[in-house]
Amino acid sequence: MIFATLKEVLDRARAGKYAVGAFNINDMEIAKAIGGAAKEERSPVILAVSPSAIKYAGIEYIYEIARVTADNSGVPTVLHLDHGTSFDDCIQCIRYGWSSVMFDGSKLPFEENVKQTADIVRIAHAAGVSVEAELGKLAGVEGHVSVEEKDAIFTNPGEAKLFVDRTGVDALAVAIGTSHGAYKFKGEANLDFPRLENIEKLVNMPIVLHGASGVPKYVLDKAAKYGAKLPGAAGVPNDAIKTAISLGVAKINIDTDIRLAMTAAIRQVLAEKPEEFDPRKIFGPAEDAMKAVAKGKMQLFGSSGRA
Ligand code: G3H
Ligand code: 13P
Ligand code: ZN
Q1: Contacts of 111 by beta carbon, 8 Å cutoff, 6+ apart
Q2: Contact in structure between 282 and 263 (CB atoms under 8 Å)
Q3: pLDDT digit string, tens, across residues 32-84
Q4: Where are the alpha helices (DSSP H) in the chain?
Q5: Residue 212: nearest ligand to its CA?
Q6: Is 71 a catalytic residue?
Q7: Per-residue pLDDT tens for 166-186?
Q8: What 3-state class would DSSP assign to 303?
Q9: CA dist., res. 187 & res. 142, Å (int)
Q10: DSSP class of 175
Q11: Ligand 2 pocket check for 29: Cβ under 6 Å
């Protein structure tokens, strides 16, 4: 197989106490930036493709972009479906050559999530494809949240144990207070690390942290300087990422930080050189900016030098 499986990459990460970044790709420039970063950092990498990325790029394009990216970088590269929400999403990618799929049944009742995940695991594993699943609701929490409120939203450790035993998944995405996008917290970041620790002890497998972008100030400042309006944007601080890795997180999902880096760089070129209309002169600097962010993540996650 051209692509490494999620299981082999994450089992190594877990044993080595580092995490591997899963970066969403939607086009050639993003993929080149991520692959280029992985090559320079000698880091394993996960190329995450969402159903909306497939719809945007077309499955043929995005598959070939990922294939060439893996070929050129020469590092273990996983081609992963991010947030597949249906049986068909997962089967389409398995048939097309993905090495890993996420089935996101987190909005389903527990028993239905178990049933649908287990069905996909049986088929995926027969095809040599890994499976990630999710339990709990990804939601940012603001300020102090009661134990009862956390229990209603976040992953329940006992359920997580039952879930992994009954489904046979290779990695579990958990909800401990992160959320997707650029507005994760009002005030202090608030992640439930004791819960993460309990889950890890019980499930004994690689844990996945979605919604893990840092929304760095220097990128926000650059975006704002050139016209972006993102008041109140806030992400997961680097020290929280390090704590999460020390407690068993082996896969860290990043999309927002790459989007911000890309669009801030595009804004800068368009603002500073209003006469420019060669797309290569606009997307080129954006690719460099994304690559720099991805390299920083690989260093933070400890995956640099592990390929
Ligand atoms: O978690 C979702 C990822 O950021 C992908 O987002 O569905 O807009 O491609 P998307
Ligand atoms: P961010 O929005 O924090 O980058 O999270 C991305 C993600 O979880 C993709 O699955
Ligand atoms: Zn996600």
Answers
A1: none
A2: no
A3: 999 999 999 999 999 999 999 999 999 999 999 999 999 999 999 999 999 99
A4: 6-16, 28-41, 51-57, 59-73, 87-96, 110-126, 147-153, 157-167, 193-203, 217-225, 238-246, 256-272, 279-301
A5: 2
A6: no
A7: 999 999 999 999 999 999 998
A8: coil
A9: 8
A10: -
A11: no
Long-range contacts from 220-228, C-beta under 8 angstroms, 24+ separation: 220/260, 222/264, 222/265, 222/267, 222/268, 223/260, 223/263, 223/264, 223/267, 225/268, 226/264, 226/267, 226/268, 226/270, 226/271, 227/267, 227/271, 228/263, 228/264, 228/267
Residue identifier of the C-alpha nearest atom 1 of ligand 2: 211
- How many Å from the N-terminal Cα to the C-terminal Cα in the chain? 17
Confidence of residue 142 (pLDDT cuts 50, 70, 90): low
The closest residue, in CA terms, to atom 1 on ligand 1 is: 180
Structural tokens at position 162: 């039952």
pLDDT value for 146: 76
Mean pLDDT of all residues in 172-201: 95
| Crossing angle of the two packed helices 193-203 and 157-167, in degrees rounded to 10 | 30
Residue environment code for 243-267, b if the CB has 16+ CB neighbours within 10 A, otherwise e: ebbebbbbbbbbbbbbbbbbbbbbb
Is 4 in contact with 78 (CB distance < 8 Å)? Answer: yes
Atom of ligand 1 lying closest to residue 53 CA: 9
pLDDT in tens, 255-269: 999 999 999 999 999
Reported confidence tier of residue 151, pLDDT bands at 50, 70, 90: confident
- CA gap 295, 293 in Å, rounded: 5
Tokens of 251: 């896969």
> Are 252 and 243 within 8 A, CB to CB?
no
For residues 273-288, give the mean pLDDT. Answer: 98
Give percent of the chain with pLDDT exceeding 70: 98
Rounded-to-integer distance, Cα 290 and Cα 297, Å: 11
What ligand 1 atom has the least distance to the C-alpha of 180?
A: 1
